[in-house]
Amino acid sequence: MSAMLLAQAAVNTATQVTTGEAVAFWVLGPLALAGGLGMIFARNAVHSALFLVLTMLSLGVIYLVQQAPFLGFVQIIVYTGAIMMLFLFVLMLVGRDSSDSVVEVLRGQRLWAGVLGVGLAVLIVTAVARALTDVRSVGLAEPNANAGNVKSIGKSLFDEYVFPFELTSALLITAAVGAMVLGYVDRHQRGRKTQKELVEARFRGEHDRPSPLPGPGVFATSNSVATPALLPDGSVAEESLSRLIDATASEKLDQERKAVAGTLPGPDARALAPGKEDRS
Amino acid sequence: MNLAAEAHQASGVAGAAWLLLVLPAVGAAVLLLGGRRTDKWGHLLGSGTVIAAFVYGVILFFDTKSLPAEGRVANLHVFDWISVNSLDVEFGLRIDPLSLTFVLLITGVGSLIHIYSIGYMSDDRDRRRFFAYLNLFVSAMLLLVLGNSFVTLYFGWEGVGLASYLLIGWYQGKNFAATAAKKAFLMNRVGDVGLALAIFLMFKNIGSTQYDVVFAEIGKQSTGVVVAIGILLLLGACGKSGQFPLQAWLPDAMAGPTPVSALIHAATMVTAGVYLIARSSPLYSLPQAEDARFVVMIIGAVTLVIGCIIGCAYDDFKKVLAYSTVSQIGYMILAVGLGPAGYALGILHLLTHGFFKAGLFLGAGSVMHGMNDEGDIRRLGGLARKMPITFVTWTLGYLALIGFPFLSGYFSKDAIIAAAFGAHGTRGWVFGGIALLGAGLTAFYMTRLLILVFLGKPRWENLKSEDGRAYHPHESGPTMTIPMIILAVGSVAGGAILSGLLPAWLEPSVGELVETHGPLNHTVVSILTVGISLIGAAIAFAIFGRREQPVTRPQRVSFPVRAARADLYGNHLNEALFSRPGVWLTRFLVFVDNRGVDGLVNGIAAGLGGSSGRLRRLQTGFVRSYALSMLGGSILVIAALLMVRFA
Amino acid sequence: MTPTYYLLLSALLFTIGAVGVLVRRNAIVVFMCVELMLNAVNLSLVTFARINGSLSGQIMAFFVMVVAAAEVVIGLAIIMSIFRTRRTASVDDSNLLKY
């Protein structure tokens, strides 16, 4: 039904712009412009995206008005609906902390961008205005008349533009594969051994020693790096000595050596109060 | 005019003339390469080679003399030396009366001085090397006089320059000796450039440097070329012979050992300039060369006066003798500048001067040898009784030098003075007068020297030499006195013998001696010369003989004495004219090079570097700025399109 | 009113997009500006189709949309991977390719 309605409208506006269309334009055009401006001025990227959605919706409607119903719906569904959501999705992934700071780091960038933008606009507007004065539009009534806009486009696509269309499919597949390649993260570190394999390798002699290095302070009363580990016999474990930090002088370790050896009169395990160690 | 006789190919005794060069050269080579191994017998080898060369020279002399006058010029081809396109220089010797005269002088005096050096250098641990250098010198000097082309001469010329440099700087540990050697070397270079340019000119205009060809063809050249070659040759002569304005190195050269001063800087090498001009007599005799000859005479006259005046003021024994040499060579240059009237006289004076000046130097050496190397005449005095042989031989040389009648100088110098008076017009009066004045001054300073050194009170008695030893003057040993005696005999008799024979003997080389008849005849000039010399001697006696002389030189003296002590500002002149402008020029060139050439090169580099540094800034790496320029470019393209479309 | 106004609207939107590319630093926003420029062009194509009475313009716009979709997929993937390594989505931070 809508197609019929649109076709009707198309016939009506075959050659001239109707008042309705003019009204639509004067509503949608400023909206689109406002969306564009809002997009570039919004500090928040999400706001920018929403402003762009506004512009795109306006454009979609303008397409509908301009006898391009297929494109209008594609614009709204695919563009506004899918692509912009993808944008938003990525925006959320990246996080909002990356939003622009207010300070412009490139000297003169904004000024020149403004000047060149105005210059570009003036140039194009001038060119269009001068070139297309008094244009009489032919209108799409005839192409759209036979089978409607969508059918006509489909016919052209699979008839006249079939080769570019197939190329497009290749492009899309390539893009999909590319996106997968870029987006894929290999979380498996190759060649990483399991703990079991590691232990076996240690005992096969593939490493310097089967056990881990003794940590500082093992069998000692302190866990400072400066305190060397003491072996069960009370001697200093050479491997535990740090190459960067001077180890505590061995005399100071005497106590600990004795403690490890059990020669130091320690607190009586059965005593309820700390007693004799005060004398030491 | 009767120029050099046609040269024939040397044969017989003359065919071995290369021995003259090779003997001393071998001596030098053996002594230098042999090192300390030759220390024991080095001096004997050195002397032996020169004596052998002398003996051969004598044989060659008599052999040549036995030939008829036309056959006395021989050419000995040794090998082809330089053969490049049209330049074809053969290494050849020219045996003719002129070169033979020099050969005898060089080897004769050289032998005597070698013998003398055995004694004089006995204390020097490097005596062997000294003899090597002396041999090198003799060899080079013989090449200089025997060569049959200007290039060969130049080779020898540089060789003697090298030997002179090495020997002046013999006491290399002493600053003044090193400086003096450098000075001599550098000032000689100035003259050598003149000689080299003269040779280039000959090659350019004549296409050869062989004497035969050059002298045969020189007459066809334009006046400008002849005068230019003449003056450039004179410049070379000035450098080597210590003539104005290049005289300043010669007195400094006395820094070398005394035998060197006697051999190189009195008798032989410094006379190379005279030889050069006499050898080029066919050139200077040309009518086109009138101007060049005139310049030669001026240089000679100026130098002889300068030498005399400075000689009057110096207190250093050897330096006075050195300036005396400068002045006497001035006489010789003046003589050869007179042209055909003077070549033979110049050579004659050269020979007699070689005898008596060598003798005087050896006497000075003997004195210094006995007096702890003391050369300041104010610290000497009264040595006649302590060194009788030295005194007698020295006095004979002295008398010969001042032109005492019938001694050597009388025959040679008076003849030059008379010939100078014989020059054309006012020139005769001017040059004759100068020469006469020079004779008086010569007598004055030589008498002063005689009185201060040998006569008067022994001022050295209460003094000590620089190294703190007391003076014990003593006569030198026989190796030193015998050469002095021989040279003294030569000084006495040489003039009388040679004056009669030499002009005719030299005729094949330098042409006939033309008698000139000036306003004053020979007898009058002789009487005048002797008279003026006596007056000079008498003044000197009056000033220095009567009064006690101070041991230190008086500082409050009149301007002329001060000027003379400062070498008549010869060094200042050289410095102001050549040295400073040279330094300025080099500074300027360095500036130009640094700022101009390098500046240009570096400037281009710096400019490119700087601009690329600026351009580099455009590459910020910021995508947005690239995008900005893209947009700018797009706008330009669009604007251009629109302008084409709508304009 | 004539269809020319659509073209003028398209020009203005294109300019806004271009300026946005220049002034915004967030890569995603820059990307959105590029999308805006593409949309502006699409509007022109649609308008030309109407003026000329031919569907070719619309088909071209359709192709532009397809290409834009592919571009968005790849572009966002690139932005993601850059963000993974650099923890930033600012185009100014990827400035290593400079002097």
From TrEMBL, chain A:
It is found in: Cell membrane. PANTHER family: NADH-QUINONE OXIDOREDUCTASE SUBUNIT J (PTHR33269:SF19), NADH-UBIQUINONE OXIDOREDUCTASE CHAIN 6 (PTHR33269). The lineage of its organism: Bacteria, Bacillati, Actinomycetota, Actinomycetes, Pseudonocardiales. The keyword Cell membrane applies. InterPro entries: NADH_UbQ/plastoQ_OxRdtase_su6, Nuo/plastoQ_OxRdtase_6_NuoJ. Keywords: Cell membrane, Membrane, NAD, Quinone, Transmembrane, Transmembrane helix. Belongs to the complex I subunit 6 family. One of its GO terms (cellular component) is plasma membrane. NDH-1 shuttles electrons from NADH, via FMN and iron-sulfur (Fe-S) centers, to quinones in the respiratory chain. Couples the redox reaction to proton translocation (for every two electrons transferred, four hydrogen ions are translocated across the cytoplasmic membrane), and thus conserves the redox energy in a proton gradient. One of its GO terms (molecular function) is NADH dehydrogenase (ubiquinone) activity. The chain crosses the membrane at residues 23-42, 49-66, 72-91, 111-132, 161-185. Its EC number is 7.1.1.-. It catalyses: a quinone + NADH + 5 H(+)(in) = a quinol + NAD(+) + 4 H(+)(out). Residues 255-280 are annotated as: Disordered. This is NADH-quinone oxidoreductase subunit J. It is a multi-pass membrane protein.
UniProtKB/TrEMBL annotation, chain B:
Residues 81-131 form the NADH-Ubiquinone oxidoreductase (complex I) chain 5 N-terminal domain. GO terms for molecular function: NADH dehydrogenase (ubiquinone) activity; NADH dehydrogenase activity. Keywords: Membrane, Transmembrane, Transmembrane helix. Residues 148-434 form the NADH:quinone oxidoreductase/Mrp antiporter transmembrane domain. It comes from the Bacteria. The keyword Manganese does not apply. GO terms for biological process: ATP synthesis coupled electron transport; electron transport coupled proton transport. Coiled coil: none annotated. It is a multi-pass membrane protein. Pfam families: Proton_antipo_M, Proton_antipo_N. It is found in: Endomembrane system; Membrane. The chain crosses the membrane at residues 12-34, 41-62, 98-118, 130-147, 185-203, 223-239, 260-278, 294-314, 321-341, 389-411, 431-455, 484-505, 525-544, 626-646. One of its GO terms (cellular component) is endomembrane system. NCBIfam families: NDH_I_L (TIGR01974), PRK06590.1 (NF005141). This is NADH-quinone oxidoreductase subunit L. It comes from Actinokineospora auranticolor.
UniProtKB/TrEMBL annotation, chain C:
It catalyses: a quinone + NADH + 5 H(+)(in) = a quinol + NAD(+) + 4 H(+)(out). Keywords: Cell membrane, Membrane, NAD, Quinone, Translocase, Transmembrane, Transmembrane helix, Transport. GO terms for biological process: ATP synthesis coupled electron transport. GO terms for cellular component: NADH dehydrogenase complex; plasma membrane. It is an enzyme of class 7 (translocase). InterPro entries: NADH_UbQ_OxRdtase_chain4L/K, NUOK/Mnh_C1-like. It is a multi-pass membrane protein. The chain crosses the membrane at residues 6-23, 28-49, 61-83. Its EC number is 7.1.1.-. GO terms for molecular function: NADH dehydrogenase (quinone) (non-electrogenic) activity; quinone binding. It comes from the Bacteria. It is found in: Cell membrane; Membrane. NDH-1 is composed of 14 different subunits. Subunits NuoA, H, J, K, L, M, N constitute the membrane sector of the complex. NCBIfam families: PRK05715.1-2, PRK05715.1-3, PRK05715.1-5. Belongs to the complex I subunit 4L family. NDH-1 shuttles electrons from NADH, via FMN and iron-sulfur (Fe-S) centers, to quinones in the respiratory chain. The immediate electron acceptor for the enzyme in this species is believed to be a menaquinone. Couples the redox reaction to proton translocation (for every two electrons transferred, four hydrogen ions are translocated across the cytoplasmic membrane), and thus conserves the redox energy in a proton gradient. This is NADH-quinone oxidoreductase subunit K. It comes from Actinokineospora auranticolor. The gene is nuoK.
